[in-house]
Amino acid sequence: MIWEKDADAAIKKVPFFVRKKVRKKVEAFVSDKGRDKVTLGDVQALKKKFLSKGGMESEIKGHDVSACFGGEGCPNSVVPSGRLVKDIQALMEEADILSFLRSEVKGDLKFHHEFRVSVSDCPNACSRPQITDIGIIGAAVPGITTEPCSACEACVEICPEQAVVLGDMGPEIDTDACLSCGKCMRVCPTDTLETAKTGYRVLLGGRLGRHPRLGMEVPGILSHDEVVDLVRRCLKFYKKHSRGGKRFSHVLESLSQVI
Ligand code: SF4
Ligand code: SF4
Ligand code: SF4
User: Fold this and answer.
1) Residue 39 structural domain
2) Core-most of 68, 91, 147, 162, by most CB within 10 Å?
3) Which of 88, 161, 170, 174 is nearest to 122 (CA)?
């Protein structure tokens, strides 16, 4: 689908968390009309529909699971997350957040009511997992083997966090600074550095809006099954404590004040 310049500029003004969805809607709208070029008029027609009474509500699914494009061949991907995204989507559907929101929210549902999960395949975090209800980031933890180090310094040079130093006995890793991006293991020519563990870092309770907040990181690197279990428990917790459409992050905040 071709986008005219002013149509593309208009879509870029749509809030990023619904932009992908709106872009798809516009393209489907244009395609239904038998065309392959999106004009500014198409974007404006859809905008009018969205802003009309009940127009937005018909588009709301109650939840949203988004992923970065690591699965499309991004070389930085450390953990393919396709299966995890599918499993989380299934959990969301099972939890039926839409019915829950309809029973809790007075008036029209809005996109900001949706429960959002965002998955990134590496710490570059292109899908912005830090500002969603549950953010998941692929992680590859480096380990040091007994293979002799050639002191080539490739690992030191490539680490974006300056977390690797070369000591007399070979590489040393500052585990507090390391973000488990996997870069140092990939460049090590002697296999002195290896992937000790892969999994996911998880952040809970991020949001944007008037009072933005970054998600709080759960300690450790979680396996696929542990992430799925954590998401399941978070959804249960959210449905038990959220009233009137209160966001997950607000629920976590208010409960932490009474504990
Ligand atoms: S988060 Fe990492 S793996 Fe995903 S698209 Fe961005 S750079 Fe690639
Ligand atoms: S995994 Fe990434 S952040 Fe950690 S030490 Fe290696 S290059 Fe640095
Ligand atoms: S990349 Fe491997 S061989 Fe080179 S300095 Fe680092 S650990 Fe040693």
Assistant:
1) 1-52
2) 68
3) 161
Closest by CA to 232, choosing from 64, 92, 133, is: 92
In a domain, 22, yes or no: yes
For residue 37, is it within any domain?
yes
Count: domains in the chain: 2
What pLDDT does 35 receive?
A: 84
pTM: predicted TM-score of the whole model, two decimal places: 0.83
pLDDT tens-digit readout, 61-85: 889 999 998 888 899 999 989 999 9
- Residue 42 belongs to a domain: yes
- 66, β-bridge pairs: 118
Residues flanking ligand 3, CB < 6 Å: 149-155, 166, 170-171, 187-190, 192-193
Distance 123 CA to ligand 1 centre (A): 7
42-57: pLDDT as tens digits: 888 887 776 666 666 6
Nearest CA to ligand 2 atom 2: 181
Q: Give yes or no for a contact between 122 and 138, defined as CB atoms under 8 angstroms apart.
A: yes
Q: Whose CA is nearest to atom 8 of ligand 3?
A: 149
Task: State the number of CA atoms in the 13 A half-sphere of 193 facing the CB.
Answer: 29
Ligand 2 centre to CA of 192 (Å) is 14
Q: Which amino acid is at 176?
A: D
Task: Tell me which residue has its CA closest to atom 3 in ligand 2.
Answer: 178
pLDDT at 52: 65
